Amino acid sequence: MSRTDFYRDPNAPKANTIKVAVSALVRNERGQILMIHRTDNSKYSIPGGGLEVGETPARAVVREVKEETGIDVTVTGLVGVFSNPEHVIAYDDGEVRQEFSICFTADPLGGELRTSSESKAVSWVAPEDLDALDIHPSIWLRIEQGLDDRAEPYYT
């Protein structure tokens, strides 16, 4: 399913749903960040996806990272809670979702980089190389907050 992100766009459609999503800022021993090149909007992102019934947010992020990247992780902390009514995501089935994501930090445990139906490329990227990638502002905010080494989680 394709999607269109609207961010601070006065012509954006009005949200008609909100769904809990999770994401992870995963860093390897060299400090590189696990990034995916999304298939649905062709932007680069940290891995993540929707919380399913019966899951905890931490378990969901472990599952999503594995599904999208092939990497097994352990959750190590909370970056923050991100929800912005000025960021809506329109899907081709008519759903228009307000962003709501819980972002975690995580360490890789193993696995092999691989793509999925949601990721056309997966790679470890040095923080100084992120500027060369097309990253949505909402994902940039999560990355910046995660790299900021804050004592308290970020929230909107």
* Termini gap: 28 Å
Tell me the series of helices and strands, N- to C-terminal: EEEEEEHEEEEEHE
What is the 3D form? globular
Secondary-structure-based class equals alpha/beta
Main pleated sheet: 5 strands, mixed
At the third CATH level, what is the topology name?
Answer: Nucleoside Triphosphate Pyrophosphohydrolase
Helix content: 10-25%
Count of helical stretches: 2
At CATH's second level, what is the architecture? Alpha-Beta Complex
CATH superfamily: Nucleoside Triphosphate Pyrophosphohydrolase
Tell me about this structure:
The chain has 156 residues and is α/β, with parallel strands linked by helices. The model has no long low-confidence stretch (mean pLDDT 95). The chain has two helices and twelve strands, in the order ββββββαβββββαβ. The chain has one domain (3-155): Nucleoside Triphosphate Pyrophosphohydrolase, CATH 3.90.79. The longest helix has 13 residues, at 57-69. 15% of the residues lie in helices and 41% in strands. The strands form three sheets. It has a five-stranded mixed sheet, with helices on both faces. A four-stranded mixed sheet has the order 1-8-9-2, with no helix packed on it. It has a three-stranded antiparallel sheet with strand order 5-4-11, with no helix packed on it.
Features:
41% strand; Nucleoside Triphosphate Pyrophosphohydrolase; 156 residues; 12 strands; globular; alpha/beta; four-stranded mixed beta sheet; five-stranded mixed beta sheet
